[in-house]
């Protein structure tokens, strides 16, 4: 079998054992390119037609695509690569063949694991050397061009990173020609402009550096109606004031730290041991250089305090991540709107990191590349709150080794490659008493400690519910603790009693329940008959009329979704407040 390689980083090329495999005609080349970019996934026939004819397809388009696929199969017959039917279209089986785009990505990512700036430069030079011009040069399909925008962004981000590193190494004069060409080709890419201004200034061409800025500012105002970025304006000012002689080892180092963490709502209580666990896991990462970015995954049921814990952790560690502390609500179970998808989340993160809205790429891959470039060389803490799954957050995780990401979710993110995973439990009795007493703010809790414990039990020892009950008592100065406990005793009305404008307990549980499929929803409703007591899988299986092994799998899924608690092998119980919720559904 031939050793075959495909080349997209320039004109489309296919080689077998070093000899070109002719792919004749723009139609065949476009179809092959679309299939290669699909990464082995099926491409629907209508998409292939759009790629070839851009909405102006002739009546014979389907037949022509099939003929093009037949020609490609014939051309690739001796290589082991095949084109298979897939869905209502086709998929390409590369059979282990090489792709220069994959090799570029591998080499560029390898640079992040190098500690020496010179080694990083060599890795990035090696990656950029694979480019033979614009990706798929000569193919004009708009469908292809939209896909290639993200790939081009990867190249530009790698080039920017390499130039930054070479500036650190003092290689100024040798970069002038390359950066002049880059600015001419990408006049609105202000990073290149800043780098060119830097090398000109360091090479003694201060006046030319100022002219580059003036030309860029004029072009931005005339064609886009905007001013240069703050960091570019700051560099311009440093050159004017004569402090530009030492600009530019890294452009933008004077940029203020990024910070959009929500303000403190209340001091965190009852989580000292959990915080210590995380800090021990991170020890060394926050104190010095690290080869990989850290990820802390925090999961737990609705109302257990995941967001409060993550924000508190972020503030505790802020000084170890001086370049910024960023927050985004992914709204997987939120009440503020629909779930935030990955492209929208990347846009929010880029804006929070100071990227102007008008310069944020429109496509997903472009945004990912811009995000990774923005973080390169920085120590930033990122909180991704309320994630739906590991797949929901994976594209948002930084590659920069100095960064820390804290992810919260109602599901246990077992497949997420994390430095530390933590499931937040219900509060202890002591922590619950402390929180309840602090919020009530008078001596009634101390006078009726047994009634306080009863309220804690009715609240399932969930911080959100405990705070809600305490706020209710604080606003009812004529009530005793015992009276509030009696009002919470009825499981069917308990959530209504605890309902506050800011709490939304029932709604929060609704969001978790609605994400279950019908089979899991049915089992959850059946569990309301058992109560908030330990139960074994055999008893639940009898109640549900299902085999024990299947019931156990369903129960374990509910545990992973934090709708149920595992108390031992094959034994489960429902949180007291979750049981009150299940009674409303039964």
TrEMBL record:
Coiled coil feature spans: none
Domain OmpR/PhoB-type: 18-92
Chain spans, region Disordered: 251-270
Taxonomic lineage: Bacteria, Bacillati, Actinomycetota, Actinomycetes, Micromonosporales
Sorted UniProt keywords: DNA-binding, Transcription, Transcription regulation
Record bears the keyword DNA-binding: yes
The keyword Nucleotidyltransferase belongs to this UniProt entry's keyword annotation: no
Stored InterPro entries: AfsR-DnrI-RedD_regulator, BTAD, OmpR/PhoB-type_DNA-bd, P-loop_NTPase, Sig_transdc_resp-reg_C-effctor, TPR-like_helical_dom_sf, WH-like_DNA-bd_sf
SMART domains, alphabetized: BTAD, Trans_reg_C
Family the entry assigns: Belongs to the AfsR/DnrI/RedD regulatory family.
Domain Bacterial transcriptional activator: 99-240
Name of the protein in its database record: BTAD domain-containing putative transcriptional regulator
């Amino acid at each position: 079998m031939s050793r075959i390689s495909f080349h997209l980083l320039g004109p489309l090329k296919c080689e077998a054992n070093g000899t070109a495999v002719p792919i004749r005609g723009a139609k065949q080349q476009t179809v092959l390119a679309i299939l290669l970019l699909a990464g082995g996934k099926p491409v629907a026939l209508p998409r292939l037609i759009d790629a070839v004819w851009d909405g102006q397809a002739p009546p014979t388009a389907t037949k022509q695509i099939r003929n093009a696929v037949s020609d490609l199969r014939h051309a690739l017959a001796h290589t082991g690569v095949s084109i298979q039917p897939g869905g209502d279209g086709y998929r390409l089986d590369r059979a282990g063949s090489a792709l220069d785009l994959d090799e570029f990505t591998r080499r560029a990512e390898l640079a992040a694991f190098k500690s020496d700036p010179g080694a990083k430069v060599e890795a990035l030079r090696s990656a950029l050397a694979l480019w033979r011009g614009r990706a798929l040069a000569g193919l004009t399909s708009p469908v292809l061009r939209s896909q290639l925008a993200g790939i081009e962004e990867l190249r530009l981000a790698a080039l920017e990173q390499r130039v930054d590193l070479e500036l650190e190494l003092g290689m100024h004069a040798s970069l002038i020609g390359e950066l002049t060409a880059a600015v001419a080709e990408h006049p609105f890419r202000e990073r290149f402009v800043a780098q060119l201004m830097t090398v000109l200034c360091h090479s003694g061409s201060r006046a030319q550096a100022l002219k580059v800025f003036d030309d860029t500012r004029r072009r931005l105002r005339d064609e886009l109606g905007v001013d240069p970025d703050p960091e570019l304006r700051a560099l311009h000012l440093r050159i004017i004031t004569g402090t530009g002689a030492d600009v530019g080892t890294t452009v933008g180092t004077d940029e203020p730290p990024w910070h959009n963490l929500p303000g403190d709502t209340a001091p965190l209580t009852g989580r000292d041991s959990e915080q210590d666990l995380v800090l021990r896991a991170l020890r060394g990462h926050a104190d010095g250089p690290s080869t990989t970015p850290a990820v802390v995954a925090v999961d737990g049921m609705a109302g257990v305090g995941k967001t409060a814990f993550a924000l508190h952790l972020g503030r505790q560690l802020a000084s170890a991540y001086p370049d910024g502390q960023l927050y985004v609500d992914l709204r997987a179970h939120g009440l503020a709107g629909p779930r935030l998808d990955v492209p929208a989340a990347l846009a929010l993160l880029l804006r929070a990191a100071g990227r102007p809205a008008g310069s944020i790429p429109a496509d997903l891959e472009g945004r990912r590349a811009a995000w990774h470039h923005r973080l390169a060389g920085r120590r930033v803490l990122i909180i991704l709150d309320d994630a739906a799954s590991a797949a929901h957050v994976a594209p948002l995780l930084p590659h920069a080794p100095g960064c820390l990401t804290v992810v919260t979710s109602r599901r246990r993110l077992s497949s997420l490659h994390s430095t530390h995973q933590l499931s937040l439990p219900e509060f202890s009795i002591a922590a619950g008493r402390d929180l309840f007493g602090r919020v009530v703010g008078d001596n009634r809790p101390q006078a009726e400690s047994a009634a306080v414990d009863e309220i804690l039990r009715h609240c399932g020892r969930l911080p959100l519910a405990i705070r809600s009950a305490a706020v209710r008592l604080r606003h009812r100065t004529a009530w005793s603790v015992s009276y509030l406990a009696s009002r919470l005793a009825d499981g069917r009305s308990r959530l209504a009693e605890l309902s506050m404008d800011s709490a939304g307990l029932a709604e929060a549980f609704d969001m978790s329940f609605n994400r279950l499929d019908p089979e899991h929803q049915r089992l959850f409703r059946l569990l309301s008959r058992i109560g908030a007591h330990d139960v074994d899988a055999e008893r639940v299986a009898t109640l549900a009329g299902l085999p024990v092994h299947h019931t156990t799998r369903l129960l374990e899924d509910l545990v992973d979704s934090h709708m149920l608690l595992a108390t031992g092998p094959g034994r489960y119980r429902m949180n007291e407040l979750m049981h009150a919720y299940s009674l409303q559904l039964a």
